[in-house]
Design a protein that fits this description.
- The strands form 2 sheets. The chain has a 5-stranded mixed sheet. The protein has a two-stranded antiparallel sheet with strand order 1-5.
- It is globular.
- By secondary structure, the chain is an alpha/beta fold.
- It is built from 8 helices and 7 strands, in the order αβββααββααβααβα.
- The chain has a single domain, classed as Uracil-DNA Glycosylase, subunit E, CATH 3.40.470.10.
Length: about 230
Amino acid sequence: MKINIHEESRNIIDQLSRNPQIREYVDTNWEIPRVFAGTGQIRLIILGQDPTVTNKESRENMVQVLNLDKEAGALYKYLDGICKSLDLNLKENIYATNVIKNFFTDSPTEIAKTAGIHVLKEAAPFWLPLLQQEIDQLPNVPIIALGEPVLNVLVRNGSQSMRDYWGFTENWQAGHLKGFTKIEAENSAIHRMIFPMVHQPSQGILFYKCVRSLYLNYIKNSISRYEFDFERE
């Protein structure tokens, strides 16, 4: 049964706006961005963190998840590059959604710094059941998650550090890397295998910049073994 993401989200945001732990940090002024669904066979799910942008005035322009309606934008180009590295077509093969779908009054990182409240963790129990329903409609489709903060929500057991999945060692510049890994389904809050992917703001960090192509190749080789049985309605 197809779910109505917007209707379900309104109910969840209403609950969050009454939750004493985080209600003052929930920005209810904007509609949640639309999910992105490619026009062809869905072969990859991309999970964003949340739609919040620091500039509040620009939030009204955030109408689709990860700004995938803006082909000239830097984030679109970044994700398009990832898709091409995986031999996928962003416009055809991608389903993108946010783990946490509501806006916050400020970035979750800034709220944690100033108020000591980890709003992603507080909001996650409200949103994860809906996310589970979303991805259950796309069985056997591999998943990548953008950015380290969202790992705090998605990882039940195991490391929540991006660089651990990317094989970081202190001697990585000498070519000494651990084996690349992923979040196994049994360690995932959504019971699915997840490949942690560095988000656009962190792509310039030297380690990620140097290892990015290798990790993408690891993802490519891993997902080439998937069997896709999803049929579009």
